Amino acid sequence: MEELERVRLQGSGGRLGAVYAAVVALAFVDLALGVYAALKGPFPLMPPIGAPTAYRNIYIHIPMAWASYILYTGAFVSALLYLKTSSEKWDRYVRSFVLLGTVYAAFTLVSGMAWASESWGKAWTWDPRETAVLLLLLAYLVYFVLRSSIPDPDRAASLSAAYAVAAYSMVPVSFLAPRLAESFHPTSSEFGQFMGSPEVMAIFGPKVLISTVMALLLAYATAQRLAGAPAPGWLRPAALLLIAAGVASGAYVALPYLSGGVDRVVSAGLTADGKLAWVELAHGGRVEFNPPIESPVQPASVDVNGTVLPSIVKHVVSVSDGSLRVVTHWSVALNLAAYAVATGVVLLLLSSRRLPRSISGSR
Amino acid sequence: MPGGGRGRLVLFSVVFFAALTLVGLLGVKSSNYRDVAQLQAFQETGPVRGLAVKGMTTNLKPGEYLLVVGETVFRMRVASEQPYAVAERIAGPRLGGDDSYAFFLLRGSNGFTVAALFSARTFQSFYGPQPIMESEVVVSGTYNPQLTARLYLLTPDGGRVLVGEYPVFMVDKILEGCHSSYGSGVGRA
Q: β-pairing, B48-57 with B34-35?
């Protein structure tokens, strides 16, 4: 029976190769789009705290969070199908979806902390959704502990599938957390105000679509790998290239930080025609622009409760030779790199000759 | 899988689903921030560090104020009605590491109010020169029930009227929600 399955898998090698190729291609497209979002993505004009460009994490953190919910939904459905049919195929899908969902959820938690350190003032605040995602992650980590603690493979599969159904309860709790308790996370209606902008949607829409499709293809490839289907030989160098590209992209976005000379604008002055006449920097003092320059942030001013404020205020900037450049907050660079590295590591794992025992479930 | 075994697994799933939902809901509900009102019950004789509390800001009326915190005297001017003012030290020993503090009153759900003091330099570097504060604010820092701040409004004839006396909450972070961010328009750089 197992031999038959192996022959079937070898027969489907071409299709699986195409899936890996699609995953790698999507990962590079996603990274390129991520770099664009990190450098050019629109952001809320005047957040109450911190650098507005930290909100470019919207294009990285949220697609990953949504993809983790979709992956866990895949695990839930597969677990139900396993409990109904006892088919090994569904057991592999449960393992695959839970594994990837956990990678995505862990990334969501860490990327959110980096973002919150700037935009909420603190990396960890026991915000209801932060807490719910942590509980979600812990609930799914128990899946692996449970599975590996049962010696009988059939019993391990059925009990852990039943547990995967139960653990899914944390997904709606986490999704609804901002509605269930007072939260720093916005509800979808508050978030919708910003997302309504076509220029935001032009980046956010494709990012969500690519992340989701890539996550599902990765789950399919992982399930096939768990069935013993080999990964193509080119996957390993492609994964290493993706990791290198991720690190390089993050470093490129963070270059102003790495080369020093970044500062934060605490105050600014605009001329009557909306040009920037001066900025007051947190550490660098006052910098005058003579003649006044176009503000690097557009629109140059924002009306807040009847008070017109220069929109450059609170931005992290670098000043050199009389020019002012907006610097993307470091959390975006970090998350951009971490996302590509995480995807690359998953691909690297799939390309290995033998999967680690904790993943393959073999004894 | 025999029918009885499947039945037990389904029961296991349903029971655990309910149990985990309960754990999740309790976790989410207990993540709510402590209300300033709850500080009233604190009887500690020394400072209590690492607290996060939420409260409503109270608008300060225009005028000149004196703020006396322990032996330190600050002066502040409020030009137009706003939720905070910058208090500059004019007499007495230095309080903490700064000479000027952003001062605001945080009121709890039962009316209990604390005087929140936050380093003006840190406050302005994070919030900009004209900070926009929401009516509800969550802050983290150190609460000292034994240290009180007396707020006086200076009258034109040189006298002073006590506005109120409040325990002091030294703020080290303002944990601000991002809800209002999404309504502030779309920026490009």
A: parallel
In whole angstroms, give the CA distance from residue B100 to residue B120: 6
Print pLDDT tens along chain A (363 aa). Answer: 455 555 555 555 678 999 999 999 999 999 999 999 999 999 998 887 789 999 999 999 999 999 999 999 999 999 999 999 999 999 999 999 999 999 999 999 999 999 999 888 788 888 888 899 999 999 999 999 999 999 898 899 999 999 999 999 999 999 988 888 777 777 676 677 788 889 999 999 999 999 999 999 999 999 999 998 999 999 999 999 999 999 999 999 999 998 888 999 988 999 999 999 999 888 888 999 989 999 999 999 988 767 788 999 889 999 887 789 999 999 999 999 999 999 999 999 999 877 766 666 654
Query: What's the gap in Å between the CA of B50 and the closest CA on chain A?
Result: 11
Bridge partners, residue B56, by sequence: B107, B136
Q: Which residues of B touch A136 (CB under 8 A)?
A: 24
CB of A162 less than 8 A from some CB of B: yes
| Separation between Cα atoms, residue B88 and residue A111, nearest integer Å | 39
**Helix ranges, chain A (H):** 2-11, 13-40, 58-85, 88-119, 128-149, 153-167, 170-180, 188-195, 198-226, 235-253, 255-258, 330-351, 357-360
Task: Name every chain B residue with its beta carbon within 8 A of the beta carbon of A132.
Answer: 24, 27-28, 31
In chain B, the residue whose alpha carbon lies closest to the alpha carbon of A79 is B13
Question: Is residue A81 within 8 Å of B136, Cβ to Cβ?
Answer: no
The predicted complex's ipTM stands at 0.75
Distances (CA, A) of A274 to A121, A285, B73, B147: 30, 22, 41, 47
Look at A161 and B9 and tell me if their CB atoms are within 8 Å. Answer: yes
**In chain B, where are the structural domains located?**
1-31, 34-177
How far off is chain A from B109, nearest CA to CA, in Å? 15
Any CB–CB contact under 8 A between A182 and chain B? yes
Chain B's closest residue to A53, CA to CA, is: B189
Chain A residues lying within 8 Å of B59, measured CB to CB = none
Among B5, B182, B187, the residue with its CB nearest the CB of A191 is: B182
Contacts of B134 in chain A (CB under 8 A): 48
Distance of CA B176 to the CA centre of its chain: 10
